[in-house]
From TrEMBL:
<feature type="domain" description="Elp3/MiaA/NifB-like radical SAM core">
    <location>
        <begin position="60"/>
        <end position="286"/>
    </location>
</feature>
<dbReference type="InterPro" id="IPR010994">
    <property type="entry name" value="RuvA_2-like"/>
</dbReference>
<keyword id="KW-0479">Metal-binding</keyword>
<keyword id="KW-0408">Iron</keyword>
<dbReference type="Pfam" id="PF04055">
    <property type="entry name" value="Radical_SAM"/>
</dbReference>
<dbReference type="GO" id="GO:0046872">
    <property type="term" value="F:metal ion binding"/>
</dbReference>
<dbReference type="InterPro" id="IPR058240">
    <property type="entry name" value="rSAM_sf"/>
</dbReference>
<dbReference type="InterPro" id="IPR006638">
    <property type="entry name" value="Elp3/MiaA/NifB-like_rSAM"/>
</dbReference>
<dbReference type="InterPro" id="IPR013785">
    <property type="entry name" value="Aldolase_TIM"/>
</dbReference>
<dbReference type="InterPro" id="IPR007197">
    <property type="entry name" value="rSAM"/>
</dbReference>
<dbReference type="GO" id="GO:0051536">
    <property type="term" value="F:iron-sulfur cluster binding"/>
</dbReference>
<dbReference type="GO" id="GO:0003824">
    <property type="term" value="F:catalytic activity"/>
</dbReference>
<keyword id="KW-0949">S-adenosyl-L-methionine</keyword>
<dbReference type="InterPro" id="IPR023874">
    <property type="entry name" value="DNA_rSAM_put"/>
</dbReference>
<dbReference type="InterPro" id="IPR051675">
    <property type="entry name" value="Endo/Exo/Phosphatase_dom_1"/>
</dbReference>
<protein>
    <submittedName>
        <fullName>Putative DNA modification/repair radical SAM protein</fullName>
    </submittedName>
</protein>
<keyword id="KW-0411">Iron-sulfur</keyword>
Length: 415
């Protein structure tokens, strides 16, 4: 590997990290250095890789790979062993110094670190852990750290990552075991899920200890997440939704991220020639939201998909698709309906439903009251009863989907 300076390495390894979507930074404990001790905090900031907390606050992270060299040859990965890409590698100390320098310039408030596999899984994991250890222990860095761990590494090394990081993630890579065997034969579903099980147990055990003993160390307080590649294999949206639901249930994940497959240079012949529509990725995120915050089960979300193809519609969101398929559940009375049914009304979000529940304690709500809480009252009207409003035959109208499907818009060059 040719000798590269830090800036050249950063250019290569920051660009290589863009394929990893799982870099949100919400849910950790609050730390700061306002008491004059340590460096950094997990509050506020502006900068490089933008992720978002549940309250909408922008989080800035230095998002890089330790190296884009790899001994594995996963077909879908641009950094695979057989790929003809420019390679670079940071030392652990270089990553530490970069993180500190970027923080002091107010560019970032944390670090997202992943890596290709060099020499062995254990050697690579040792280098990743050393970065986090040095930041925490040598430099008293109190900012956010997210580490991508390696399932094949020694469990003790993965455990060490959890002791220093706010969040850890272990990628399941593909939605099905058959897809993983075909496109990443050196990786094992059982090893990946085994590592996720051990991480879940460690998070639970440490959380119990911290409740009993004030001096107990924290362990991945922001939990663990994972990522699935969408469109590289034959998995349908139904397969992906069911897999995500299983991951949430079995491993207590904070997030499942979906990354649309992107064709890469010198691609394997078994990969698709075109990337899937980006709207497909967006619909999967919406489906994920329905399961996490709206009370939908995985089978209910899958029921919104096309029965033959297993794919969610791209022209309408999955919540509306479900409502159109199960019109017998509607209309819902805004003044009497339970929260779980109001959450299923297309066009009503969680905040709008909470506002409705609070307001109807004091007066009966009209359709115009609901209109103030939603972007499109047109989407709400067929599925809701309000004071002075009943949809009548509108709910069962044959052409209702056509009416509710958003019209395509020409994007404006100047705003």
């Amino acid at each position: 590997m040719a000798q590269l300076d830090i800036q050249q390495k950063l250019e290569i390894l920051a660009d290589a990290a863009k394929y990893d979507a799982s870099c949100a930074s919400s849910g950790t404990v609050k730390r700061s250095s306002r008491d004059g001790k340590g460096l950094g905090s997990t509050d506020g900031g502006m900068g490089i890789c933008h992720a978002y907390a549940p309250d909408g606050r922008c989080i800035s992270l230095l998002k890089i790979l330790l190296t884009n060299s790899c001994i594995f040859d996963c077909h879908y990965c641009i950094n695979r062993k057989s790929s003809n890409v420019r390679r670079a590698r940071f030392t652990a100390d270089e990553v530490v110094q970069l993180t500190l320098a970027f923080y002091r310039r107010n560019y970032i408030e944390g670090l997202f670190l992943s890596s290709g596999i060099i020499r062995s899984s254990n050697y690579t994991m040792e280098q990743i852990v050393e970065v986090a250890r040095s930041l925490r222990e040598d430099h008293h860095f109190r900012g956010y750290i997210h580490l991508k761990t390696i399932p094949d590494a020694d469990p003790e090394l993965v455990h060490q990552a959890g002791l220093h990081a706010d969040r850890v993630s272990i990628n399941v890579e593909l939605p099905t075991a058959s897809g993983l065997r075909r496109l990443a034969p050196e990786k094992s579903e059982s090893r990946i899920e085994g590592a996720m099980t051990e991480m879940k147990s460690a998070i639970i055990d440490t959380a119990d200890a911290t409740r009993k003993y004030r001096s107990a160390p924290t362990f991945a307080p922001a939990g663990q997440s994972t990522q699935m590649i969408v469109g590289a294999d034959a998995a349908t949206d139904g397969d992906i939704v069911r897999k995500a639901s299983t991951l949430y249930d079995r491993f207590g994940l904070r997030r499942v991220y979906y990354s649309a497959f992107s064709p890469i240079p010198d691609a394997s012949a078994i990969l698709p020639l075109q990337r899937p529509p980006l709207m497909r990725e967006h619909r999967l995120y919406q489906s994920d939201w329905l399961m996490r915050f709206y009370g939908y089960g995985a089978n209910e979300v899958v029921a919104a998909a096309d029965a033959e193809t297993g794919m969610l519609p791209l022209d309408i969101d999955p919540k509306l698709a479900w409502a159109l398929k199960f019109r017998g559940a509607f209309p819902v009375d805004v003044n009497k309906g339970p929260r779980e049914m109001l959450l299923r009304v297309p066009g009503l979000g969680t905040k709008a439903v909470d506002a409705i529940l609070a307001a109807r304690r004091w007066r009966r709500l009209r359709l115009e009251d609901v209109a103030r809480l939603t972007v499109s009252v047109v989407k709400v009207r067929p599925f809701l009863i309000a004071e002075g409003w009943r949809p009548g035959a509108l709910t069962d109208l044959a052409g209702l989907k056509t009416i509710l499907t958003p019209k395509p818009k020409q994007m404006e060059l100047f705003i």
